[in-house]
Amino acid sequence: MILVTGGAGFIGANFVLDWIAAEGTPVVNLDKLTYAGNPGNLASLTHDARHIFVKGDISDRTLVAKLLVQHQPEAIVHFAAESHVDRSIHGPGEFVQTNVVGTFNLLEEVRTYWATLAEPAKSGFRFLHVSTDEVYGSLEPTDPAFSETTPYAPNSPYAASKAASDHLVRAYHHTYGLPVVTTNCSNNYGPRQFPEKLIPLVILNALNGKPLPIYGDGKNVRDWLYVGDHCTGIRAALHKGRPGETYNIGGNSEKTNLEVVHAICCILDTLHPAGAPHAKLITFVKDRPGHDRRYAIDATKMKTELGWQPQEQFETGMNKTVDWYLNNGAWVRRVISGEYRRWMDLNYTTLR
User: What is the DSSP string of 220-287?
Assistant: First the structure.
């Protein structure tokens, strides 16, 4: 039995599905169901007794304590977070509340629960904290990729809130002995991603003949990690990671935003041709404030210590992703709510 926080969101839901398929053991899934938490992501588990869904907040310490005592999980996998940089720019308070205060409250209850465990359950317990490469700041074009020893230099309220949560998790290991493992991943893509993020946004806009918005000059570089590879990386870190250690999970796929959008357009030109090449819809918009120029992950530690490396190439992962959106129109229609449309209006209407 494991307890997953934020397991109805994009990465969390993919992880829950992956865990039950690969491990076969039960999951207690605690999710607040904010705008990006979608129960439809877990529709295939509706009648699966191994999936126990609980709607609730990680800051509800009474609820968290009750779940820990009731289900006696062997591990916590902590995904729950506000995660969109643009939203953090417009409203940083929610990010501090969820990512910092929420993680603190969760750690407090987990620490209390862990202290009650007898051996060997106590030494075998793990708290796996899922974080981001954005805590490391921005790289110049010739800089080496982020490693686990790269100094933190967060540049957005989102990144700062995740950095703060990383530091709390580290402190709970060094101060209290809580057996924690932290993973810092690069940009995820794949099925079930809320369409405020670049890749699903571009796919859905292209299918509807709408502009494909690209910030600034489109040359910001990210390392792209297929979400299925991320899930196997988290399982590897959970099973074999050393307590107190950090592991960077990357996709070995550095691409500019413009390259990503052109790749999507080429796939759609083949699978869903329109009257003209989809790339004609590309539109440059005003850049995001403080937009980091480049992220890159060095995942050598994952490979050498845990025997993990990504299985998907960018091309294969992107083909799978576009195909999923083309074949899941009902999911798309349900997720595109009024709030989503208002968010798009706020961020992507100003042309450069």
Answer: -EEEEEEHHHHHHHHHHHHHHPPTT-EEEE--S-EEEHHHHHHHHHHHHHHHS--SS-GGGGEEEEPP
Tens-digit pLDDT profile for residues 248-296:
999 999 999 999 999 999 999 999 999 899 999 999 999 888 898 999 9
For 70-82, write each residue's pLDDT tens digit. Answer: 999 999 999 999 8
Global pTM? 0.93
- Tens digits of residue pLDDT in 92-138: 999 999 999 999 999 999 999 999 999 999 999 999 999 999 999 99
Active-site amino acid positions: 133-134, 158
Single-letter residue type at 249: I
The span from the CA of 232 to the CA of 22, in Å, is 9
Sketch out the chain's domains with CATH numbers.
2-193+223-254+293-313 (3.40.50.720)
